[in-house]
Amino acid sequence: MASLASPLVTLPLHAYRESPTAKPAFLTVKNDRHFAGHPLLSLLDKCTNTKQLKQIHAQILRGGLFFDSYSASRLFAALSLPPSSDLMYARKVFDEIPRPNIYTWNTLIRAYASSDDPAESLLIFLRLLHECPELPNKFTYPFVIKAATVASDIRVGRAVHGMVVKSILGSDLFILNALVHLYGACGQLDLAYRLFVRIMRKDVVSWNSMITAFVQGGCPEAAVDLFQQMEMENVKPNQVTMVGLLSACAKKGDLEQGRLMHSYIEKNSINLDLTLNNAILDMYTKCGRVNEAKRLFDEMPEKDIVSWTTMLVGYAKLGDYDEARLFFDAMPCQDVAAWNALISSYEQNGKPKEALGLFHEFLLSKNAKPDEVTLVSALSACSQLGAIDLGRWIHVYIKNQGIKSNYFLTTSLIDMYSKCGDLEKALEVFHSAERKDVCVWSAMIAGLAMYGRGRAAIDLFLNMQVTGIKPNAFTFTNVLAACSHTGLVDEARLLFSQMEFVHGVLPGANHYSCMVDVLGRAGLLEDAVELIKNMPINPTPSVWLSLLGACRLHTNIDLAEMAFSHLLEQDPKNIGAYVLLSNIYAKSGMWEKVSELRKLMRVSELKKEPGCSCIEVNGVVHEFLVADTSHPLSTKIYSKLDEIARRLRSKGYVPNKSQLLQLVQEEDMKEQALYLHSEKLAITFGLLSLEQSQPIRIVKNLRVCGDCHSFAKIVSQLYSREILLRDRYRFHHFKEGVCSCMDYW
DNA sequence: TTAGGGTTAG
């Protein structure tokens, strides 16, 4: 038998093919060393694709080499790792290896750590502990920690850390650096830093890991401080360090520091690779210096899709959509990320119509397909416009395309259905979601809040905690808003008082605004003022705006003027404040004060944001501004509006002019202007173009005025139509002459 | 007697 093992080693590859007499079963190994230089194994390194690897696999099986654990491990590594890996196939090969050694186990863990199923790495690690006769070694842990990092599994990460400490590998630099990275990536900056300072001989990777952790954990200042410390300790930074620091400057929007970093790179001859060049571009664009970025972009010897997308986003952020589009069109290839960058910049900059136009274009293009990120952007654009038909279509698209749902998509769907007036469907998505994180729960609570379903929102908030999900700052904003829309004062007080001490969430300015709103609406203006006085943080304009809103509701002029002046100190151009105070004066018949305010607005060149209402009919969104005559059916709409006005008057409806910002002086003009409010035009268009059975869904950019609210109530009764009107703050569901907000808004 | 850690756009 020994004589058979030896000649095999020296045979050239063709000898296998021509040697039908070879008996693999006899070729079990006596001495592994013989196989290291075996020609079949040397060929593994020359393979450029999986097909070739599979051919070698066949030869290895045929030659009996597979039963040598070294050879099997070499084959397995080639199959499971880049550049020509096929993990499914490799896994089957692994399962055939009789006694995989620690190298083979490590390779399998490593392969899964970089796959889309990193959790499998962690399961394999557990199997290794039971099945492998060798102990995990210094190579095992970095791979396992990488898997825990990618899976964001801090629990497993900490357990593995514990094992490392108990092993003899407690001071292995590779392992410690991986752990710093793990804690940083999981947002545990304290743990990362505590470990980092205890590393005795830090190398550049240790510093880079900690710098990156600070940048990605939202502490760019700390990253820059650490860099200074690194210099004092004479550790030479490399391009990875500089990428992290540029990213820190970009996050801070600190152009001066960014420039310093840029010149540091040049002075210290740090290798300017593609990634570093891209990071420099990113820093300049984020600091608003697109032209400088463009100069560097033109000089770059090599560009990739990141370079192009960075420039595109830079222009889009400045509102230069034409230039952004030019970059998009000039890109060597438009991948899904480029589409997403363009679509989301429109969507996030108040251009939801344009975003949806691009989304349509994307669907028609051949070179890429929308992914989860695209759909989240598109759904958000639908929410903004109230485009429920398209929103529903996207929901079906997600199901039909088998797109894997995630928390973001679930949250976006709930948000879209809630904001487009279909709360039932939002609830259906919520209840059918397999997994829910705090964002999913919070979105549903926000949905219920918008519809004035305060009790249901609080129930959901309690259920969420039963399932073990902890509320965050957003959850509290939403649940407090629910209380405010429903007038649940005691409940809000209790929740607010528990925030910090029971849930560990420090109340922020938003939460105080909500509480002022709750108390103020309920007429407890003194309590609201007391709360503001005792705030541990400076009251923000939104806090004063809430108080001002309450003053409007309860007509308290002194308090309103006080809130107004505080607000203007911080935000002199807050139109909302002027409008509210003007409404309060108008309500009390103080027309001189109204004129004074108007003058002040004119002097400060403040213009009220024009009211705008959207309505979707058969998948097309129609937009109406105040007194809009641009719609093709304009004439029909106005004559219908006249008819409605006549019928309304015969029912005793009188326009409520006190809601009007005093823009027109003549009494009949005032009445006219009220009739020309965008939501009335949209409702009228809805009456004309939708079937009787279809609800009229309107989205308005501003708060609905009292007159339009009464108008919608009566129309819902006179014409037997359901009207769903979403304004800036909440939903109004008009049916048979009643609104779901019970006139409490 | 095989190998490993840190980086950019959305």
UniProtKB/TrEMBL annotation:
Which sections of the protein are PPR repeats?
203-237, 273-307, 335-370, 437-471
Q: Name one Pfam family in it.
A: Eplus_motif
What Gene Ontology terms for biological process does this UniProt record contain? RNA modification
GO molecular function of the protein, one example?
mRNA binding
Q: Which SUPFAM superfamilies match?
A: TPR-like
Q: Does the keyword rRNA processing apply?
A: no
Which family, according to UniProt? Belongs to the PPR family. PCMP-H subfamily.
- Protein name stated in the entry: DYW domain-containing protein
Q: Which organism is it from?
A: Nepenthes gracilis (Slender pitcher plant)
Organism taxonomic ancestry? Eukaryota, Viridiplantae, Streptophyta, Embryophyta, Tracheophyta
